[in-house]
Design a protein that fits this description.
Length: about 220
């Protein structure tokens, strides 16, 4: 009988029963796509084992990832930190159209453009700064309403707009730094967020309450 190949990678033998997908997958895809591309149920035995006895390499990576996020959030005040986590959670769960996949450069464009928009508004001038790439434009269209909702109805020179500008600039810088650490990986920053931030599995949307952090801490 011919070995069944993993339906996710199409390369390795499928030897693990995945309760989330209701099919056999390979161990590598189980380990690397767990809780990111695969929404594992809490009673999955492989998930439970991984949480209780994570491989040393994963522990080191997790410590590195969390350390980077802490570094990205350095010197932010409480409200800015909450907003950072809110936006980062949104980015971690954002699912663009298949024909226009999102890469780190798009995230940099979108957050930098939004930062300029909020900085301009904080000075009392309403002007929309638009990114160049289509994926970044679509990200701005999805991200801006969520930020405005978190900030309430006040516009034009509000402290929240100034905070939003600071946080969005920090996120753009964080994406650039993550790319510098992995120059060959065009989604290094977005993958880091997926690993470090817990996205609600039901709707894969950012939490409506910016005071509810979703960081996975050691």
């Amino acid at each position: 009988m011919a070995a069944v190949l993993c339906p996710l990678c199409g390369e390795r033998k499928a030897r693990r029963g995945c309760p989330a997908l209701d099919k056999q997958i390979c161990a590598v895809c189980c380990g690397t796509k767990r809780l990111t591309q695969i929404r594992c149920p809490s009673d999955c035995p492989y998930l439970t084992t991984a949480r209780e006895h994570p491989p040393a390499a994963l522990v080191r990576q997790h410590q590195r990832d969390v350390g980077l996020v802490v570094q990205f959030m350095r010197d932010l005040n409480q409200r800015q930190s909450q907003l950072f986590v809110l936006i980062a959670t949104f980015l971690a769960g954002y699912k663009p159209q298949e024909l226009h996949p999102l890469i780190d450069d798009d995230a940099v464009e979108a957050t930098a453009a939004l930062a300029s928009t909020f900085e301009t508004s904080a000075r009392g001038v309403i002007y929309e700064h638009n990114p160049a790439s289509l994926p970044a434009q679509r990200l701005v269209s999805a991200l801006k309403p969520m930020i405005l909702q978190a900030g309430g109805s006040g516009v034009g020179g509000t402290p929240f707009e100034r905070d939003a500008g600071v946080v969005l600039r920090r996120l753009a810088d964080a994406a650039r730094q993550a790319r510098e650490l992995e120059p060959g990986n065009r989604t290094a920053f977005l993958e880091l967020l997926e690993r470090v931030i817990r996205v609600p599995p039901a709707a894969e949307e950012a939490p409506s309450d910016p005071a509810a952090p979703r960081l996975i801490v050691p």
